[in-house]
Structures are given as C-alpha cells and as structure tokens.
Design brief:
Chains A, B: Residues 9-171 form the MoaB/Mog domain. The structure is a homodimer of 251-residue chains. The first copy, chain A, is an alpha/beta fold and 251 residues long. The first copy, chain A, folds into two domains: 6-163, MoaB/Mog-like domain (Molybdenum Cofactor Biosythetic Enzyme, Chain A, 3-Layer(aba) Sandwich); 174-248, 2-Layer Sandwich (Alpha-Beta Plaits). Helices cover 35% and strands 27% of the residues of chain A. In chain A, helix 2 runs parallel beside helix 7, helix 3 packs across helix 4 (82-90) and helix 8 packs antiparallel against helix 9. At the A-B interface, helix 1, helix 2, strand 2, helix 6 and helix 8 of A face helix 1, helix 2, strand 2, helix 6 and helix 8 of B. Strand 2 (39-47) of chain A pairs antiparallel with strand 2 of chain B, so a sheet runs across the interface.
Chain lengths: 251, 251
C-alpha cells in the first residue's frame, strides 16, 4: 500500500523572534500537532513584520505544500500586518468578517466595546472562514490552504485544538528511541548500515553530554509499525553485539 | 550620519527540529549574538536533512544577506550532510582540512583515535577556514560569507564566542521596554501615533496574560540612543496621559 505524504509549512511572522527577544514555541508545537494529523512539517521560515517578506515566503510555501500555517501578527496594533500581507499574496481584498465582528462585540461587551483597533481583529482576506479561539476574543482565519494563527503559543494551541481532526492527512510518523552511553562517532557505521538494511525507515542520531559522559539517542522513524519494530530490534541487536548497553525509550 | 544595515540569515538544518522532537534554541541565541556585533538577523529557514532543500535555501539566503549561518548536521553520522550540501551549493569539492584532522587526532588520541566516522568531521568545502570549538573536537567552518556551526546549542555558542568581534557590522539595535497592565487594543492608536512621530524608531507590542490580568510590553527599537530615548519618553507620557501606569523595563 502506498500512502501519499501530506506536508505543511509554517511561516513565523515577527520581529520579536528575529531580535532574540522571544523564544519561539510554535515550531515544535505545530510539528507535534501536525504529526498526529498525519501531516509532515516540511519547512519553516521566520520573517520580520514586513509585507514584502511575508508575501515572498507565502508564495513559495503555500504552493508546494498541502497546508501552510502562519503564526503571529494578528493582534490589534500597527505592527500586526499578517492579514493584509496574506490578502496581498492571494490578490484579494481585506474585508470585515461579520461573524468575527459579532464574536469581538460579545467578547468586549463588558470591556469598553469594540473600538477601531479591536475591529482590526475581525478583518480577514475575502473568502476566509474562521478558526475558533477558546482563549481570547479574536478568531484564527482559514483561507484556502492557509491557516492564520495567533503568535502567543497558548492561543495558537487553542486554535489547533479547534482544527484537530478537520484536515486530511496520511499516516503519522511513528518513532522509537534507543539510547546509549556512547559517542556517536563510535557507532556511525553501524547506524548507517542499520538504516540501509531497512527501506522506509530513517535513523537520526542525537548526541548529548550529561553528568560528565557522552551519549546519544537514536531515533528510528517510519510510518508502518512492523517496519519500525524490525529496525529497532535490528539496531538494538547490532549495538549489543558491539558491546553497548541499550536503553529502550532513550536516555 | 547614515550607517548601512548589515544583515544575516540563519539556516537551521535538522529533521529533529521539524519533527518537534527538539526545541530550537539557536535562533534566539544567534539573534542576540548578532545584535551585539551590529548585525541584524533578517530571516531564518528550517529545512530537513535533505541536500536539495539545503541547497535551495542557501542559494537564496547567502546571496541577499551579508552573512549566512547554518546550524546542525556537522556530526559524524550518516544524517550529517551539511558540509556536502554547502559544497554542492557553492560548486566546490569537499576536502579534508589538515588542521581539522590534526585537531581531531589530538582530541581522540586517548579515545580510540580517529576512525572513518570521526574523520568525516574534518571534511570541509574547498577553500574553507576553521572556527575554533572549545567544547568538543570538531571545529566549525567558514567559507566565504557562510558560517557552518554545530546544532547542539552550547557548542554553537562556543563557536560564536570564537567569532566574536571578527565580523564587520553596523550599529547594534538598541531597545527599551515599557510595560502596562492594559489590553493592547486599548492603546493601539496611541502606539501607532507614537511610532509615526519618531522616524527611525519602531515600536512592537507584545501582549500577555498573567495572574488573571491582561498586559502588554511595548518594545521601542532604534540604532541611535537619542532617538530611542525621545520615543520612550514620548510614549510613556502618552500612556500616562491616557491614565495608565507605566513600568519602565517592562513587566
């Protein structure tokens, strides 16, 4: 059985990430969520709050992936330009979404009402639908294969919750980890041979240095459980035969 | 006085980042380091351990930025393909660097010597020079405006230490932060006007939700101290006039 691979890209938008002020959390968060949906995060770009940079990145990412996500730049302030940039990339106007406006009016009913800045968060590229946001008033936005999410990680997470199970995907990537107290350079050839012997399986080697000792975790990935299991068993046997103790699940 | 802006790009290479297994730390680390050198991190891409993806990204990033950094993929195992991909992007062969080989021989002298896997870490694109690594045996690599660093953050940090003060840059971006317990949508117009009134200054608004209250930090950025100070003073005055308490340094 051949199953096609579904891919997604992420465009992280924000001067605060590129200045080093804010540690991004959305790459890892989206990657993990996508995998459960059977979709592979294939590439990420991080660009500043500048329309030309956003449009250029969107043009590349949305055309060669099944899905394209953005995070950041959808708040009420002047530096929030994602919706305008997405509309420019798609060649559509920006319109006020009536349902989004109603959501904001409800959310801000006891908090001074909807002013001009808050109404900015009801603006969407024409043709868009909304992504529910259980955490704050402003919804996410879907337009075609583009998903516009908040930059604040727990709000982005709420929007992903709302999307769970709604995107078509393929098989999730399964993985298993074996750990060894060994320098990876001692077993590099062994790893290469184990990977070569199992088509459809990849092995990643991730070294570390802890408690004064070097070690490595070997992450085996495949989309089919029997392939994964066979490779893990083989790799463990090779490591043990070479004289190393293997920690199932990783160190 | 007009000072040109120096820019850098970062290419993060690694399946482990795109799978969500590993939280990237190098974007923020490099961004902060670059700023001290007077260089702006202008864009970031994250790609898998696949040569075509690496080459495509390098072609774009290295030609339109003064400097281009890579992290990841320079270890001894089969999934470490950065050097080969960089050489392919530059159209040069891969050669063993004698000085790197000597470093590895010294490092592994009491640890079983240099085997084939370890010797992989002495391979460089032809014409490259080395970047000292005080943390482990394998050096970083400089070739033209490309800087090839380790993916493990503390080793990348050691390589950046070795580069400190060696790259030509312009003025660092100065920043100052004002915090307010206010929803950013209440002061969006005020922020926009403050930014408009101060050419050469940008204001970023970063909302948060803590202890049951909404707040925001406003980060003012400029390359000249008097410009920065004038905008900060003006913004603080506008916020106070609107009835908000301002926390200098941010919340």
């Amino acid at each position: 059985m051949t199953v096609r691979t579904w891919t997604a890209a992420l465009l992280v938008i924000g001067d605060e990430i590129l200045s080093g002020r804010t540690q991004d959390r959305n790459v890892a968060q989206l990657a993990s969520w996508l995998n459960v949906q059977g979709i592979r995060l294939a590439e990420v770009r991080i660009v500043p709050d500048r329309q030309a940079a956003i449009v250029e990145a969107l043009d590349a990412l949305r055309t060669r992936n099944d899905y394209c996500f953005t995070t950041g730049g959808i708040g009420p302030t002047h530096d929030d330009i994602t919706v305008d940039a997405v509309a420019a990339a798609l060649g559509v106007p920006v319109v006020v979404h009536p349902e989004a406006q109603a959501m904001l009016e409800a959310h801000y009913a006891g908090r001074g009402g909807v002013n001009e800045a808050r109404l900015r968060m009801a603006r969407v590229p024409e043709g868009a639908t909304l992504i529910a946001n259980s955490q704050s008033g402003a919804p996410g936005i879907r337009v075609g294969n583009l998903f516009i999410l908040a930059g604040v990680p727990h709000i982005a997470a709420a929007m992903l919750d709302a999307l769970t199970g709604t995107l078509e995907g393929g098989l999730p990537v399964l993985s298993a980890t074996l750990g060894c107290w060994v320098g990876e350079s001692e077993v590099a050839e062994l790893l290469r041979e184990a990977e070569r012997s199992h088509a459809g399986v990849s092995i990643g080697s991730y070294p570390f240095f802890r408690e004064g000792r070097v070690g490595a975790n070997f992450v085996v990935r495949a989309t089919e459980q029997p392939l994964l299991d066979a490779c893990v068993e083989d790799l463990a046997a090779r490591l043990v035969a070479a004289g190393y103790a293997v920690v199932t699940g990783g160190i």
